[in-house]
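Please produce the structure of this protein holding flavin-adenine dinucleotide.
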Amino acid sequence: MSLRIVVCVKYVPDATGDRHFADDLTVDRDDVDGLLSELDEYAVEQALQIAEEADDAEVTVLTVGPEDAKDALRKALSMGADKAVHVEDDDLHGTDVMGTSLVLAKAIEKVGYDVVIAGMASTDGTMGVLPAILAERLGVPQVTLLSEVSIEDGVVKGRRDGDTASEQLEASLPAVVSVTDQSGEARYPSFKGIMAAKKKPVESLELDDLDIDADEVGLAGAWTAVDSAAERPARTAGTIVKDEGEGGKQLAEYLASQKFI
Ligand SMILES: Cc1cc2nc3c(=O)[nH]c(=O)nc-3n(C[C@H](O)[C@H](O)[C@H](O)COP(=O)(O)OP(=O)(O)OC[C@H]3O[C@@H](n4cnc5c(N)ncnc54)[C@H](O)[C@@H]3O)c2cc1C
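Below is the modeled complex.
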């Protein structure tokens, strides 16, 4: 039977763009260009490598996000994924990690899976907790933050590198995996891949399709709330130390005053 791999990919605001909060203190996603979270490219790459090793496998990329999130799906499809699922609904506005994980879990159950692969963190929220919450919701083992991953005979194995030790972990499928930016460079989409992606299926789902009520997600269903936000202060000119014989001393005094030394 085909190995069903679902990769969770997030469409994130471009960190190099000028980002703002909207009046309700959610991120103003209309105001800035977005892209496939770079850390999720590693998840797509590992999914494709596992699929290439398997006799028979299918890679589905899944996102919860606004209309433009299709761009992230197209990029993953052009890298080589087989099909995509996009959950989009106006009621998702303001959804936090608890709501996002609920939507992803329901969508993953609907699509069907043997293994879910996620990135180590998104490049905007950067909580790094979604894969663990997802595993809990799905009721399957989690093998997170892997730098190396493989699947054989219904078992996922991998290496998690910590500060003091490298752990070898394994879990029986179905399971949730997350991979780090040390897991291997993500491939660039080829011209052929980009052309092929245009014809690959992208299924759109709404909350109703997943039996999720509007009040379970959105700002109303969020477990967290942003109370206030302030613009980052404008950059000030740096301190310039002119070396007229005492430069080293002045530099050391400056570093000490900033508690760097
Ligand atoms: C339209 C919309 C509006 C939102 N509004 C808010 C808001 O106002 N306040 C708020 O707190 N949160 C909001 N969110 C949710 C938030 O952007 C995150 O998706 C969620 O909180 C997960 O947190 P994180 O990105 O830090 O996850 P992490 O734990 O850092 O992510 C780890 C991995 O989980 C997967 N992942 C994370 N998010 C998604 C996703 N959306 N789709 C697919 N895979 C994913 C990726 O593989 C990622 O690498 C909104 C999301 C959407 C789609």
